[in-house]
Design brief:
Radius of gyration of chain B: 24 Å
Order of helices and strands of chain B: HEEEEEEEEE
Shape of chain B: rod-shaped
Order of helices and strands of chain A: HEEEEEEEE
Radius of gyration of chain A: 23 Å
Shape of chain A: elongated
Structural class of chain A: alpha+beta
CATH topology of one domain in chain A: Immunoglobulin-like
CATH class of one domain in chain B: Mainly Beta
CATH class of one domain in chain A: Mainly Beta
Largest sheet of chain B: 4 strands, mixed
Largest interface: A-B, 55 and 46 residues
Helix content of chain A: 10-25%
Strand order of the largest sheet of chain B: 1-7-5-4
Number of strands of chain B: 9
Number of helices of chain A: 1
Strand order of the largest sheet of chain A: 1-2-8-7
Distance between the termini of chain B: 100 Å
Helix content of chain B: 10-25%
Distance between the termini of chain A: 77 Å
Largest sheet of chain A: 4 strands, antiparallel
Oligomer: heterodimer
Structural class of chain B: mainly beta
CATH topology of one domain in chain B: Immunoglobulin-like
């Protein structure tokens, strides 16, 4: 796809490098990436049930203790910093597609959250935040008295 | 006009549920960092949501194929309010040349990142005697 190691830098080799790169870019455009621009990092999904909201976001390559989660009323903010790994001297970089840097997302939820019972789990680079709805905001069933 | 009986409805629902299970998952091209040192090639591949046991790495001839299988959660997550990403499997292919020790490659998965290290072969040095 992108390089042929230990080959001399001949014109033919350059042709194959370019060919592989184009081939890979074409495949990537067909297959699509899950990650958009850096301004939209991390990508999030929001699901709701009557009793809670679930926010999931893709944060591969970060430690759980590097993520800050804050909740106030119906606002959720996710903040952190993804550090690029240090490379040994003389390391050649062939590709760098993985996002590194600071990120900050704020999401407005459809209801106020019971801040004391928020549960966050981080597994395999996916953050799952369960945000229960406040008891007083839950829909109440009104019983009808027959007249 | 066709009307479905209760039993027929259940059968149709069962069939459509089975169909959903069999539908192939969407395939994504994961982001990759590729580094090369004097001794090895290093690949860092983003595969969030993929467990270590669901990763497949194969090296054949000069082709490196990386695959990650995503397992959707068992329980329903509720109504979708916002969807900035979709879930699916990962696939990426590289041409890496033949001067590598594929049998000595090592891989580890941490926090949704696959790290693969492939040692390179040392270039052969052949001393040629000059005939007198």
């Amino acid at each position: 796809m992108l390089f042929r190691i230990l080959d001399p830098q001949t014109k033919a080799n350059q042709f194959w490098r370019d060919f592989d790169r184009l081939n890979d870019e074409l495949t990537r455009s067909i297959l699509d990436s899950q990650f958009g621009s850096a301004s939209n990092f991390p990508p999030v999904n929001v699901y709701t049930k009557e009793e809670e909201a679930l926010v999931t976001c893709l944060l591969p390559g970060i430690e759980a203790d590097q993520i800050d989660i804050n909740v106030k009323d119906n606002l959720l903010s996710i903040h952190g910093k993804k550090k690029a790994e240090e490379l040994a001297e003389g390391t050649e970089v062939h590709r760098r597609e993985i996002f590194n840097g600071e990120f900050h997302r704020t999401l407005e939820l459809p209801f106020r959250v019971d801040q004391d019972h928020v549960l966050a789990k981080f597994t395999n680079g996916v953050l799952n935040i369960h945000l229960p709805r406040r008891e007083e905001d839950k829909p109440k069933k009104v019983s009808i008295i027959a007249g | 006009m066709n009307t479905l009986t209760k039993e027929n409805k259940e059968e149709v629902l069962k069939q459509s549920a089975e169909k959903d299970v069999k539908t192939p998952a969407r395939i994504y091209s994961p982001n990759v960092d590729v580094f090369e040192t004097e001794a090895e090639l290093l690949f860092r591949v983003e595969m969030p949501g993929v467990d270590q046991s669901s990763v497949e790495i194969s090296i054949e001839k000069d082709q490196l194929i990386l695959e990650g299988k995503f397992v959707p959660p068992a329980e329903s997550r509720g109504q979708v309010r916002l969807a900035e990403y979709r879930e699916g499997n990962y696939f990426r292919k590289f041409t890496i040349g033949k001067a590598i020790h594929s049998d000595k490659a090592t891989a580890k998965m941490k926090n949704g990142i696959l790290e693969l290290t492939i040692p390179k072969m040392e270039p052969k040095k052949t001393k040629i005697e000059i005939q007198k």
